[in-house]
Write a structure and sequence with these properties.
The complex is a heterodimer of chains A (269) and B (311).
Chain A: H1 3-27, H2 29-53, H3 56-80, H4 82-89, H5 92-97, H6 102-132, H7 141-163, H8 165-168, H9 170-187, H10 202-207, H11 209-222, H12 231-262
Chain B: E1 3-5, E2 11-13, H1 30-42, E3 48-58, E4 63-65, E5 68-70, E6 73-84, E7 89-93, H2 100-107, E8 115-120, E9 123-124, H3 129-135, E10 136-139, H4 151-161, H5 166-180, H6 196-209, E11 214-218, H7 226-243, E12 246-251, H8 254-260, E13 263-268, E14 271-276, H9 278-284, H10 292-299, H11 302-308
Parallel strand pairs in B: 7-12, 7-13, 10-11, 11-12
Antiparallel strand pairs in B: 1-2, 3-6, 3-8, 4-5, 8-9, 13-14
Helix pairs in contact in B: 4-5, 4-6, 5-6, 6-7, 9-10
The chains are: A mainly alpha (269), B alpha/beta (311).
Chain lengths: 269, 311
């Protein structure tokens, strides 16, 4: 099969996974409204802490943290849970038997996660901006967009590595993914500067890609810093993505091979 | 409808279209995989060759040795060997836990054999699973769907996975659903609201829509009413007769196996104990008047147990 035809076929399939997920979102519209309301209210309550101090810059600092974490956690969650979700639906064997590359399947889910996450984060940001009367006149939107795109890479890698966990252990895999996500929230300075962390926790903030994402995004939105000045953070994020995506995919492939040897794909629920 | 002649001169329907010069024509991502499928079907090798296949699993129970739990392994399949010819409907019958579904899963590339080899149209399932997946599809005993999506949404998703354009997919599944006796008005309903029989019909349509060279049917008519069962069986036979599809069918329904299968293998405790046409197996069970059920009971030891218990 020529590279062009193969690429077309894989893109076609990849869109199929994203399309399927949006169809599911449509069916669970009620729950989507609940989750969106909860995340918006959560961002508003956090922003109000800043209002209480009378510091408008702190309000924006907190809102950027809440919205960005909302996006990154959706990205990580949707990719890492795509296998658990199919196992729960009972469709895992069907999907694994289809003539689709695993990378295509995972990228299809990533495509969905990015578009869905951006949509939700956009609504969240809009509501927060109106609620708090935030002015974004000084923000560098180009730099913010670049940070958002590049920060997606390491989180996709982390999501891919965690996606295999439900294949290894049905429940514990999912549990481990949630704990991992919570730890990233703790050490990455979502609502505070990482300097306030206890000394023994600070090394973890250095290895978390979210730390650099938040730092760069706040610089772009609060101080209007341009892409060139964010070079160090962006480079770290790109390198993290370059390492974590192949590593995450390799973990997935190894886990899948093990599951096929031991019969773990069969288990549903 | 897309057609091309296979090696036996039958018209292969669905996946391919041939020009007057015999070349396969289709634009887009489908084309080359379909050409490969056609080549696989024309090279003279059996559709399915299972050679010395062994698969072991750890038993759920086990003894704890310090920190570790040691679980003894049992052979779900033990040196299974048989071949299915092109265009044949081959039945596998056996008691629950005899290894039928394990075998189907290995052919489906969902499990890796411990020993032995399985080849689909000459392609090794362990060595080249991606190529095998181009040639197969499966209907499982419990059809797996996204239950909150409608039947048509599930079919559209499946079409994407198999590289079918929406228009082609729509034409195919509309035609198949009509033939299989599914009420088209229900296609927009969520799968969770469909009866088991209706779900199995959509599952059969989903599998047939991709026009597989080898169709794996794992108890596809379990739970269907007699009419639905007959409709599904008729479509399976038509797919074989019109499209040359090879079928590997597992079933508990002896009548179904007798009606549909050219040959039947009896799988007992992970081993093939006998293979033949339904008539041959009846004879081996003790005479011309004997049925496939008699053969099943004889070769799985159930007859002897029944007599022992006065049954």
């Amino acid at each position: 099969m020529s590279i062009k035809v193969r690429a077309l076929r894989e893109i076609w399939c990849s869109i199929g996974f994203a399309e399927r997920n949006f169809m599911l979102v449509k069916r669970y519209a009620g729950w989507e409204a609940v989750f969106l309301t909860y995340t918006i209210v959560s961002a508003l309550t956090i922003g109000l802490i800043g209002v209480a101090t009378g510091d408008q810059r702190l309000v924006l600092y907190l809102v950027v943290g809440a919205v960005l974490w909302g996006y990154l956690s959706i990205l990580f969650h949707e990719v890492s849970e795509c296998i658990a979700w199919e196992r729960w639906e009972g469709t895992l064997e069907y999907t694994f038997m289809a003539p689709v590359k695993r990378f295509t399947q995972l990228m299809g889910n990533a495509l969905y996660a990015i578009t869905y996450g951006l949509g939700r984060a956009g609504v969240q940001l809009l509501v927060c901006a109106l609620f708090f009367g935030i002015s974004l006149a000084g923000a560098n939107f180009l730099a913010a967009a670049v940070v958002l795109v590049i920060s997606s890479l390491p989180f996709l890698g982390l999501g891919l590595a965690c996606a295999v966990l439900p294949l290894l252990s049905r429940e514990r895999g999912s549990q481990a993914t949630h704990i991992f996500q919570a730890l990233i929230l703790l050490v990455s300075g979502v609502y505070y500067d990482v300097s306030v962390l206890p000394a023994w926790l600070r090394p973890f903030s250095v290895v978390s890609p979210a730390t650099y994402t938040l730092r760069a995004m706040r610089a772009a939105v609060l101080d209007g810093v341009g892409v060139a000045a964010l070079g160090k953070e962006l480079l770290i994020l790109v390198l993290s993505g370059v390492v974590l995506i192949p590593l995450g995919f390799a973990c997935f492939v190894l886990g899948e091979r093990w599951a096929k040897r031991t019969g773990k794909l069969k288990i549903e629920g | 409808m897309d057609r091309v002649k296979n090696s036996e001169g039958r018209k292969v329907e669905g996946r391919l279209e041939a020009s007057s010069t015999g070349t396969v024509e289709r634009a887009g991502p489908e084309r080359e995989s379909l050409v490969r499928a056609a080549e696989a079907m024309d090279d003279g090798r059996p559709a399915l060759k299972v050679d010395g296949l062994t698969k072991r699993f750890p038993r759920p129970e086990g003894k704890r040795h310090g920190f570790w739990r040691r679980r003894p392994r049992f052979a779900a399949l033990a040196a299974v060997t048989f071949a299915v010819e092109r265009g044949e409907i081959f039945g596998l019958i056996g008691m629950n836990g005899s290894g039928k579904s394990t075998l189907i899963r290995i052919v489906s590339t969902l499990l890796v054999p411990d020993e032995g080899q399985v080849k689909v149209f000459g392609v090794d399932v362990e060595g080249e699973p991606a190529r095998v997946r181009e040639l197969i599809n499966r209907v499982a005993v419990d059809a797996a769907f996204f239950k909150v999506l409608s039947g048509s949404e599930n079919l559209r998703y499946a079409a994407r996975l198999y590289g079918l354009a929406p228009r082609v997919a729509r034409e195919r599944y509309d035609g198949l659903l009509t033939r299989i006796g599914f009420d088209p008005k229900r296609l927009g309903d969520q799968v969770k609201s469909l009866s088991r029989g209706e779900r199995q019909k959509v599952a059969a349509t989903r599998a047939l829509m991709s026009a597989p060279a080898l169709l794996l049917l794992d108890e596809p008519t379990t739970g269907l009413d007699p009419r639905s069962k007959r409709e599904v069986q008729r479509v399976i036979r038509e797919m074989r007769d019109e499209a040359g599809t090879t079928v590997l069918l597992t079933t508990h329904d002896m009548e179904e196996a007798e009606r549909l299968c050219d040959r039947v293998g009896i799988l007992h405790e992970g081993r093939i104990v006998t293979i033949g046409t339904p008539a041959e197996l009846g004879e081996r069970a003790g005479g011309r008047s004997r049925t496939l059920e008699d053969a099943f009971l004889k070769f799985t030891g159930a007859e002897w147990l029944g007599e022992e218990n006065g049954g």
